[in-house]
Amino acid sequence: MKKLIFVLALAAIIVTGTAFADHPSGWGIGVQGGGGGGWEGGGFGMYRGAALSLKVPSLPIYWAIDVEANSWGIWLGVAGDFYFVDAPLIDKFLHWYLGFGVGVGLGLYDDLWLQAVARVPVGLSFQLPLNAGPLNAFEVYLQIVPSLGVRFAPNLYFPAGGWPVNLGIRLWF
Hints:
The protein is about 10% helix and about 70% strand. By secondary structure, it is mostly beta strands. Strands 1, 2, 3, 4, 5, 6, 7, 8, 9 and 10 form a ten-stranded antiparallel beta sheet that branches. It starts with a helix and ends with a strand.
């Protein structure tokens, strides 16, 4: 299995001509919003929420911290994604990316919920280079992130996850 994953990753690198994400270097910080459908503890539901996105220069991980509060309760989630394909479609402005990540969430509704999922972010990224003082670039992205995992609420539910769609902006310093 490890050999298969290695061969697929190597093929993606050769096809796209890049080994790591082609996003701007430095700090990236932004916000995203979205919605989508999901398997809510063994049933089906819709959700929406906002998140803070963060990219630290020394780590190849794109982070998202999301909070959702509504009449049912409150939710806090953290996700980290590694983009193993990030290739330009049109010059250096429009890119597409594909990655893998994990997410964990904690919800307080009628019961305490804990969820862990595997994620596959796929998206388009428009990057506008800037030279405005410390600001290097402005990015707008649209992504879908299918996820699959388990939820404890208070019993074990499988499948948990869904297919959130996010629209976000990010500033690069």
